[in-house]
């Protein structure tokens, strides 16, 4: 009886040991499979990343090649071309020549300006206390800045009772009023950059006074 119990117990121990060994083998196999799966995923991820960083094939037969980088010489040439396209304005501030249709010269009184890197700002309009030049009613008046390069903007205004009344003019020419009396005018002239009209290369303003009389 004792031998039979002992034999049955030994068989149970042997069976249990066999099962534990099987479980260990299965766990080992699963571990190896997991390691191989992770390694494969890492390899595929690395391959995709490298492919994304270099979209151009190594043999150069397919795909679109990236444009060549701009070197310093090309940049310098582009800068020179931009500079050459700017108007070559004189260094000295231009003085306007104001003349009537009958050939009468009218002096200009300098106002605010920005020219050649220097700016001057006049707080108020200056007409000076001088006897105005006499011109005939209805005469045509012209303003010439004495520069071969025409300005991009020229604005002329008449000042009546301290109010600004714009005068229509595209080339600095306008007609005097037909009413006799003293008339006060102001003008603003500007040269702009061809690349950006908001950038001023130089501007100047001035005033002048005329006394309009009737024809004799």
What does this structure look like?
The chain has 216 residues and is an alpha+beta fold. It has two domains: 2-61; 97-213, Immunoglobulin-like (Sandwich). Helices cover 31% and strands 31% of the residues. The chain contains two helices and eleven strands; from the N terminus they run ααβββββββββββ. The strands form two sheets. Strands 3, 4, 5, 7, 8, 10 and 11 form a seven-stranded mixed beta sheet that branches. A four-stranded antiparallel beta sheet has the order 2-1-6-9, with no helix packed on it. β3 and β4 (118-120) form a beta hairpin. The model is unreliable at 1-13, 53-61 and 77-82 (pLDDT under 50).
Q: Gist?
A:
With 216 residues, this protein is of the alpha+beta class. Helices cover 31% and strands 31% of the residues. The protein is built from two helices and eleven strands, in the order ααβββββββββββ.
Key terms for this structure?
31% helix, 2 helices, alpha+beta, disordered N terminus, 2 domains, 216 residues, single chain, four-stranded antiparallel beta sheet, Immunoglobulin-like, seven-stranded mixed beta sheet
Helix run count: 2
Give start-end ranges of low-pLDDT stretches: 1-13, 53-61, 77-82
SSE class: alpha+beta
Task: Work out the radius of gyration.
Answer: 46 Å
- Mean pLDDT comes to 77
Tally of discrete structural domains: 2
The CATH architecture category of the largest domain equals: Sandwich
> Class of the largest domain, according to the CATH hierarchy?
Mainly Beta
User: Which H/E pattern describes the elements?
Assistant: HHEEEEEEEEEEE
Q: How many strands?
A: 11
First and last CA, distance: 161 Å
Strand portion, in percent?
A: 25-35%
Largest sheet: 7 strands, mixed
Characterize the overall form.
rod-shaped
Work out the helicity level.
25-40%
CATH topology of the largest domain: Immunoglobulin-like
């Amino acid at each position: 009886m004792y031998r039979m119990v002992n034999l049955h117990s030994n068989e149970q121990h042997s069976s249990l040991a066999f099962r534990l060994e099987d479980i260990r083998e299965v766990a080992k196999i699963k571990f190896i499979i997991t390691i191989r799966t992770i390694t494969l995923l890492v390899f595929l991820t690395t391959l995709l990343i490298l492919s994304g960083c270099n979209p151009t094939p190594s043999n150069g037969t397919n795909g679109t090649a990236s444009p060549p980088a701009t070197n310093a010489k090309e940049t310098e040439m582009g800068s020179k071309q931009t500079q050459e396209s700017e108007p070559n304005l004189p260094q000295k501030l231009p003085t306007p020549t104001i003349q009537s249709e009958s050939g009468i010269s009218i002096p200009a009184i300098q106002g605010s300006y920005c020219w050649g890197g220097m700016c001057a700002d006049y707080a108020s309009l200056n007409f000076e206390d001088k006897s105005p030049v006499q011109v005939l009613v209805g005469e045509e008046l012209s303003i010439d800045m004495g520069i071969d390069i025409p300005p991009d903007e020229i604005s002329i205004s008449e000042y009546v009772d301290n109010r600004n009344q714009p005068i229509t003019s595209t080339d600095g020419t306008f007609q005097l009023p037909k009413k006799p009396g003293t008339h006060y005018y102001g003008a603003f002239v500007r040269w702009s950059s061809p690349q950006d009209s908001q950038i001023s290369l130089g501007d100047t303003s001035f005033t002048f006074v005329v006394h309009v009389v009737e024809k004799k």
